[in-house]
Design a protein that fits this description.
mainly beta; Porin
């Protein structure tokens, strides 16, 4: 581009110089002066034409490639975007439980697993159509996770269609790459997961208020409908009464509600906060023609210190039996020993990537170090449903070597009400981009 500009400038300079050499002496024929002016005008027009040609050669659909927490391709005008990303979560698990737990839920085995091995493609088409396809290779079969299209300038907000998380809860909506603990809390047993449907969402008041509502149907990991029942209607609102210094100090308060129509059956069960553990609490299969969920959420960040809490209530309308209510909650806190803070995504009302002040290098930066603790409780017993109650105390340490790499250590003490206790230790190596 620089050489073309130089060539254009030299052409103009040389042309003008030649014309000046041909300037007539005083008293020359006025017609000759007019001819020279016409030649200068023609030269200027030619220069302008060269500029237009250069602009045309800079095709707006030409892509530039760059790395920004993933491999990105953007068109020159920004109307087309593609990002290729992925994650790898590898876990280690050790457990010790008393005899009562062994006889009640079975003996737990130490082990390792690839918890997640995913790749995704996301981006933008013609400025206003977003897309994402995310596949998980960690299981025996490839599973669809996110698979959706969206319109970013739809009336009243943004429209998303396909398979994705129903808008319910702060912890559930936050990516597994960015949650504070290796596993989410016990309350996720009550929260909706990814389903197929459509959702309208937007932010208001300078991104201080987030709202979303959607209609969904139950689907499996292949995106196929598995429920002959009705539709689920789910909505979430999250507000930021306090948001200062780009999220270094914030207070978030939110709520969610879901009206659900299962296919005559409902089952809720949960492990301790360790994926390789056995299920400790289980309602069994219940006959139900409907379920209503209420979720309350809050988070507070003040520099390196953060607190977060949620409560979920599930009311099940049973067939031929008294209705039953189940509930769960958690309270957690974390502190960055190296001074960082949790980053908050105001467009989605969730937490995002932690960026160390200094990336780890031998003899150089320490990375980011975060200590953490959480208490959570889940009660699945009510009106002749004896799913039992489970309490967890989880504590641990996170080491962020850089924005894309994290090592996590969690200790979990699980107490099944009136049965027994178990202690578990976990470690995760995580890389995402």
């Amino acid at each position: 581009m620089g050489k073309k500009k130089m060539k254009k400038g030299m052409l103009l300079i040389v042309g003008i110089a030649i014309l000046f050499c041909r300037l007539p002496a005083a008293g020359a024929d006025p017609n000759e002066l007019g001819d020279i002016k016409q030649q200068i005008s023609a030269l200027e027009n030619r220069t302008a034409a060269l500029e237009e040609k250069q602009k045309a050669e800079a095709n707006p659909t030409d892509f530039r490639a760059y790395w920004k927490e993933g491999l990105n391709f953007d068109s020159q005008d920004g109307s087309f975007k593609l990002k290729i990303g992925g994650r790898l979560h590898t876990d280690w698990f050790w457990s010790s439980e008393d005899n009562a737990i062994k006889s009640n839920v079975g003996e737990q085995e130490d082990g390792t697993e690839v918890r997640r091995a995913r790749i995704y493609f996301s981006g933008l088409i013609y400025d206003n159509v977003e897309y994402k396809l995310q596949l998980d290779f960690a299981g025996a079969e490839v599973a669809f996770k996110d698979a959706y299209l969206g319109i970013t300038d739809f009336p009243l907000g943004k429209l998303r269609m396909g398979q994705f998380y129903e808008p319910f809860g702060l912890e559930t909506m936050t990516s597994s790459n960015y949650v504070t603990f290796i596993e989410r809390s016990l309350t996720t047993a009550l929260a909706p997961e990814r389903q197929t449907g459509f959702m309208l969402y937007n932010t208001y008041y300078d991104d201080r208020v987030y709202g979303a509502v959607g209609v969904f149907r139950e689907t499996d990991d292949e995106g196929e409908n598995v429920d002959d029942g009705g539709y689920n209607i789910t909505g979430r609102i999250a507000t930021l009464p306090i948001y200062e210094n780009k999220g270094e100090s914030l207070l978030q308060v939110g709520a969610a509600y879901s009206i659900r129509n299962p296919d005559d059956t409902l089952r809720i069960r949960q492990r301790p906060e360790a994926h390789l553990a056995n299920y400790f609490v289980d309602t069994g299969t219940l006959t139900s023609d409907g379920e209503n969920l209420l979720g309350l959420e809050s988070a507070w960040v003040n520099g390196p210190l953060s607190l977060q809490a949620e409560y979920i209530l599930a009311d099940a309308d049973r067939i031929g039996s008294p209705d039953a209510s189940f509930n769960g909650y958690y309270v957690q806190g974390s502190y960055f020993l190296t001074g960082e803070h949790r980053n908050y995504n105001t467009k989605e009302a969730i937490f995002g990537r932690v960026k160390p002040n200094k990336n780890y290098s031998y003899g150089g930066g320490p990375g980011a170090w975060e200590v953490k603790a959480r208490y959570s409780e889940l009660d699945l017993s009510d009106n002749n449903v004896t799913g039992s109650e489970l309490n967890n105390i989880t504590a641990g340490l996170n080491w962020y070597l850089n924005p894309n790499t994290r090592i996590m250590w969690d200790y979990v003490h699980a107490d099944k009400d009136d049965v027994g206790q178990a202690d578990m230790l976990m470690m995760r190596l995580q890389f995402d981009f």
